[in-house]
Amino acid sequence: MTYKLSFLDWFDDRKEEVEQKGWHTVKVEINDYVVEFEVYDQVRLMQDIAINVERAGYFTEERLIIVVTNVTRKNIEKAIENIMQYPKYKELGSMGFE
After folding, report:
1. Would you say 22 and 41 are in contact if contact means Cβ atoms under 8 Å apart?
2. pTM value?
3. Beta sheet of 64-68, edge-to-edge order
């Protein structure tokens, strides 16, 4: 399956800042579809969950979330490579739009 992983243009220039914040958004283009993932490290995700529970009394998330040890290009690329093997993404890749 062919896919294209896109980082924001400034990602490499600010990679230390992204890793410290523990969060970043990436887009994956699979044929004519674009899937957006929110990538977190575990600490940042737990902080965001705690804040939401404190403010709203619950936590829910509509976005697609990936949790990695550290939010680095290498970890994100590895996670996406593995996730693209999931059946629902493989189906998108085999729809004949390549």
Report:
1. yes
2. 0.85
3. 4-6, 23-30, 33-41, 64-68
Backbone angles phi, psi at 65, to 5 degrees: -115, 135
Residue with tokens 């990436």: 26
Measured between alpha carbons, how far is 83 from 94 in angstroms, rounded to an integer? 15
Instruction: Output b/e per residue, 38-59; b: 16+ Cβ within 10 A.
Output: bbbbeebbeebeeeeeeeeeee
CA-to-CA dists, residue 21 to 18, 45, 61, 86, angstroms: 5, 10, 19, 28
Using one digit for the tens of pLDDT, what is the confidence trace for 8-26? Answer: 999 999 999 999 999 999 9
Q: Which residue has the tokens 């980082």?
A: 7
